[in-house]
Amino acid sequence: MKRCPECGREYDNSMMFCLDDGTELLYGPALTDGPATAILLSAATPAEAPTRNQIPSTTETALLSNTGGNPARRKNSLIAGVLGVVLVTALGVGSYVYYARGSSSQIGSIAVMPFVNDSANPDVEYLSDGMTETLISSLSRLPDLNVKARSTVFRYKGKETDTRSLGKDLNVQAILNGRVAQRGEQITLSLELVDVATENAIWSQQYVRGQSDLVSLQSEIARDVSTKLQSKLSGADTAKVEKKYTADPEAYQLYLKGRFVWNKRTPDALKQALEFYKQAVEKDPTYALAYSGIADTYVNFPSYSMALPKDSMPQAKAAALRALELDDTVAEAHAAMGLYLSDYEGNRAGAETEYRRAIELNPTYATAHQWLSTTLIRSRRFDEALEEIKRAEELDPLSPIIGVNVGDTFVYMRRNDDAIEQYKRVLILDPGFAYAQSGLAWAYYLKGMYKEALPFFKRLRS
């Protein structure tokens, strides 16, 4: 029971204020020695509720019984009672809105950290890395979710990280950690989604599947994680997240091996990647993503002095076209086609069309924004170029080459002070990055700071 500390009347626990004088009710017995008129407002619903014309409402009965029929007192009591009921209702509605909002809150940014290989076998490192990258790619297809790029999160691979510091550095709301173990034909994946602000686990799950179920497992975890991040997904968004490019688990593993070595970006690694991708399409000739990998590899051969453009670029084009013939929604294939058109055919308009299509398909694909920026620079559309390269940097903040391209854009815009600061920031992240050293040297030179530029030019010659 609750009581009014002023008049001593007792009330049911559901009441907040005294209907007589409006005083806030307290728990405990009445202070007065005499009997108090009890007002019991039952929360039970009668089997047949009487109509309003048959009997007065519970509140009206209570007010009449406690005012002795005095009109003035009845008026004051009625006002106090109405205020009490309004306040209780407001509190209830407020609580409902608060909790309803909390239950439907969405996480707008996430970093999927490199999954840890718990297999004690370095030969299956491709699996933990590949599952991480595939999940990043799947989540990136959600239109309202900012997912940090692979090159950014993989800079933390093998390092001890503090969740809150990591979230601040990457500017994300949530971190997803994972551990992968393979024992014979069995794969065990453990995931934990952590709120950066509180460092509390939002969700955790363990999956145990056979190796033949690897493709379906990847789709399952992408769906589960996405539903924990965003409470309401459209059917189209769910289809994007769960999309499977192949049903062949062997082809999928060959693709993962190709991506694993391709990301090392050395001539030998690119050759190995090409072989894995070719084996993947032999297993599944309809594997669009593997053809896209072939295009990505051939298009990089000239940059690593592995082949002349006339030898590798046509093969890159053929692979990209095959990928798009199989599946026009592969953003990476459109980007590879754009690079071919830009760097080999000099077709800037065609390249821009391909890059923008890639961005439309995957707005968080940092490389497409980066390559589009380069094409815009060549067309002297510097403001647009800066917007695109800054977007790429936002998506992939720890990529040294994207950081350098931001500085390059400032140079073309004759903003040499901004360029110098940008190149310095890249060198803090990667002190030995030659492109950043070269950019800084030229920015100093263009600004007339020859003394500052000279050490960098000497370093580049050595």
Report what the structure shows:
With 462 residues, the chain is α/β, with parallel strands linked by helices. It is 57% helix and 10% strand. The chain is built from 19 helices and nine strands. It has helices spanning 58-67, 71-103, 125-139, 150-153, 163-170, 214-229, 235-242, 249-262, 267-283, 288-298, 309-326, 331-345, 348-361, 366-378, 382-395, 400-412, 416-429, 434-446, 450-461, and strands at 2-3, 10-11, 26-27, 109-112, 116-117, 146-147, 174-183, 186-195, 201-210. Strands 4, 5, 6, 7, 8 and 9 form a six-stranded mixed β-sheet that branches. Strands 2-1-3 form a three-stranded antiparallel β-sheet, with no helix packed on it. A hairpin with a 2-residue loop joins strand 7 and strand 8 (186-195). Helix 12 (331-345) packs parallel to helix 14 (366-378). It is globular.
Helix proportion range: 55-70%
Mean pLDDT: 80
| SSE pattern | EEEHHEEHEHHEEEHHHHHHHHHHHHHH
Q: Could you tell me the strand content as a percent range?
A: 5-15%
> Total number of helical segments?
19
| Secondary structure: number of strands | 9
Please give the alpha-carbon distance between the first and last residues.
87 Å
Which structural class fits the helix and strand makeup? alpha/beta
Weakly predicted, low-confidence segments: 27-69, 71-104
| Rg from Cα | 33 Å
The largest pleated sheet is described as: 6 strands, mixed
The rough form would be described as globular
